[in-house]
Each structure stands twice: as C-alpha cells, then as structure tokens.
Amino acid sequence: MIALQFVVTFLLALTVSAHNVALPPYGRRCFFEDLNKGDEISISFQFGDRDPQSSTQLTGDFFLYDSNGKDVLKASRDVSYGDATINAPTKGRYSYCFSNENSNSQTKDVTFNVHGVVWIDLDDPNSDTLDSAVRKLSKLIKEVEDEQSYIVIRERTHRNTAESTNDRVKWWSVFQLGVVAINSLFQIYYLKRFFEVTSMV
C-alpha cells in the first residue's frame, strides 16, 4: 500500500507544470519567451514563503517587458499573486521578471505558470493542424452565414419591388375600369339625347 502511494505521488509530481524559483534578497529573476506577432501569452504567479513556520504572506513585484526589453507592458507591484495576458504586437523575445528588490527576505520564492496561444496563419497551405482545420471551418461557416444574410436581404428587396409593381398594376387597372365605366355612361347619355325626339308646340 505504501509502495502504491509512493508510485502515485511520483506520477502526480511528473505532471506538475508549475515552475518554482527562489528570489534572492534585493534581487530579481527573469525569464523569456520567443513569440511571433499575434501570439498570446498568459502568466499567473504567486509569491510564497519557504519557511514552514512562517505565517506571513510575502509579496513582490512583477514586470512584463516588450520585445526590445525596455518598455513595460504589464506591471504589478507589491502583490502576493496575480496574472498577466498579452497579445504580441511584434515578433521577438518577451521577458518577464519577478522582483524582490525591496525586501531582504531569504525564503521568498515564486510559483508561476506560463500558457500560450500560438497564432496560426489560416492561409498557409502547409498548415495541417487540427486547430488550423477548425479555424478554417469556422471561417467557411462565417462566409456561408454572410452569403445567406445577403440572399435574405436581396430576396426581401426583390419581394418589395414585386409587391410595389403589383400594387401599381392593381390601381392602374382600377383607374382603367373607372375610365371605361365613365366613358360608357357618357356614351349612353349622349346617344340617348341624340335619338331623343323633341316636339315643337
């Protein structure tokens, strides 16, 4: 039973993807990721204390720099935990640092995770990943929806034109019927007067 518990614990330890680093007093630890334009990177972190007897929550600073390493894209100061997400505006090496520069704590460490979403060129004919296929399918479905929307609008416009034309034909037919009826009544009245015999006294 103890051996089984040891094996399970060992296998679970292999699946842990979090990173853990110690921060030196008044120091910092920096890491980097190479990103292409449009890639997304998410970093979650937590400052902790390696001393099991300590009951205080340690804090630190976090900085995320752009590809030239000078401009700060995200900053969190004097926090115990946090996260940051960016979309890379340009291709390059983006660095992130955990700072302990305002503290002389010997036991401060940082646990952090890095997640990323890699941008895929949908027009790249050599891209045959599942993600690329799903995005291409989504793009085609959107195109079909747009075409259906265009067809619905075009059908509505044609129907309105046909109904307007039918309406005009109807009223023109009513007008013609009225003209024929008035003309017939006038002719009857005129012919009746024409053949009417007048007697002179």
Automatic annotation (TrEMBL):
<feature type="signal peptide">
    <location>
        <begin position="1"/>
        <end position="18"/>
    </location>
</feature>
<feature type="domain" description="GOLD">
    <location>
        <begin position="28"/>
        <end position="116"/>
    </location>
</feature>
<keyword id="KW-0732">Signal</keyword>
<dbReference type="InterPro" id="IPR009038">
    <property type="entry name" value="GOLD_dom"/>
</dbReference>
<dbReference type="GO" id="GO:0005783">
    <property type="term" value="C:endoplasmic reticulum"/>
</dbReference>
<comment type="similarity">
    <text>Belongs to the EMP24/GP25L family.</text>
</comment>
<protein>
    <recommendedName>
        <fullName>GOLD domain-containing protein</fullName>
    </recommendedName>
</protein>
<dbReference type="GO" id="GO:0006621">
    <property type="term" value="P:protein retention in ER lumen"/>
</dbReference>
<dbReference type="InterPro" id="IPR036598">
    <property type="entry name" value="GOLD_dom_sf"/>
</dbReference>
<dbReference type="GO" id="GO:0030134">
    <property type="term" value="C:COPII-coated ER to Golgi transport vesicle"/>
</dbReference>
<dbReference type="GO" id="GO:0016050">
    <property type="term" value="P:vesicle organization"/>
</dbReference>
<dbReference type="InterPro" id="IPR015720">
    <property type="entry name" value="Emp24-like"/>
</dbReference>
<keyword id="KW-0931">ER-Golgi transport</keyword>
<keyword id="KW-0813">Transport</keyword>
<keyword id="KW-0472">Membrane</keyword>
<feature type="transmembrane region" description="Helical">
    <location>
        <begin position="171"/>
        <end position="191"/>
    </location>
</feature>
<dbReference type="GO" id="GO:0016020">
    <property type="term" value="C:membrane"/>
</dbReference>
<dbReference type="GO" id="GO:0006888">
    <property type="term" value="P:endoplasmic reticulum to Golgi vesicle-mediated transport"/>
</dbReference>
<keyword id="KW-0812">Transmembrane</keyword>
<dbReference type="Pfam" id="PF01105">
    <property type="entry name" value="EMP24_GP25L"/>
</dbReference>
<keyword id="KW-1133">Transmembrane helix</keyword>
